[in-house]
């Protein structure tokens, strides 16, 4: 087995399901004007992509870049999984920095360009930013980006902070993104807020007391998923009161 992009592509092709490609295209919204417009799929399941990534865990960085240049979604996902798993195994600061910078460059190049590519990877890679000078400036810059996927990366990067109980940074980025026009961002923000609530429900309630009435309904619904029915109704009522006032 050669450690090159061509071998990865061949291994992924063995799992392809041509009869399911149309379903993938619909699910990932690849039609004209949709967020995944033009993306190409070969219908490989994520666990199968992960198994291929595991086989090629030592793939050279330049071969990962070849995968990331591919129009095929699963090729890019596999490249990102390899990079992310390498980040988790990295033993030195220099190695972690190199991998993080590689990931960020791929994001800036538009290669991380669908929600699953972000969500499977960014919460791991974001760990590099914790307690690092300039991290908040980078998160804010991503959150202000005109590019949807950079904004989603900003939010999902902060999940690494949530994982270690650092909640102020995620709440700050969530607040920045409350006015986003994209439903995919409303979902990401709500998801992040829900995870904050798992760590400190009072912090979430304090945030909701400020923003529940004005935040996007999708974000609100996601953020209160873990509350009991009575409390969910209370926060949704705040939203309704705003709408009728």
UniProtKB/TrEMBL annotation:
Gene3D superfamilies membership: 1.25.10.90
CDD domains xref list: AlkD_like
Identification of the protein by name: DNA alkylation repair protein
């Amino acid at each position: 087995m050669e450690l090159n992009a061509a071998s990865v592509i061949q291994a992924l092709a063995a799992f392809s399901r041509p009869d399911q490609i149309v379903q993938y295209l619909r699910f990932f919204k690849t039609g004209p004007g949709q967020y995944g417009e033009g993306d190409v799929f070969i219908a490989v399941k994520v666990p199968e992509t992960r198994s291929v990534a595991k086989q090629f865990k030592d793939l050279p960085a330049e071969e990962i870049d070849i995968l990331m240049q591919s129009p095929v979604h699963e090729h890019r996902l596999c490249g990102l999984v390899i990079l992310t798993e390498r980040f988790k195994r990295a033993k030195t600061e220099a190695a972690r920095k190199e991998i993080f910078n590689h990931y960020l460059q791929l994001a800036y190049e538009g290669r991380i360009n669908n929600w699953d590519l972000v969500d499977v990877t960014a919460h791991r890679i974001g760990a590099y930013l914790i307690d690092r000078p300039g991290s908040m400036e980078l998160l804010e810059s991503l959150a202000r980006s005109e590019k949807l996927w950079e904004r989603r990366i900003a939010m999902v990067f902060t999940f690494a902070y949530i994982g270690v109980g650092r909640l102020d940074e995620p709440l700050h980025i969530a607040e920045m993104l409350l006015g986003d026009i994209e439903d995919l961002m409303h979902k990401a923000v709500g998801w992040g807020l829900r995870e904050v609530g798992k760590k400190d429900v009072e912090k979430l309630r304090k945030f909701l007391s400020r923003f529940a009435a004005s935040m996007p309904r999708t974000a609100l619904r996601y953020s209160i998923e873990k509350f009991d029915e009575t409390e969910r109704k209370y926060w949704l009522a705040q939203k309704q009161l705003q709408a009728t006032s």
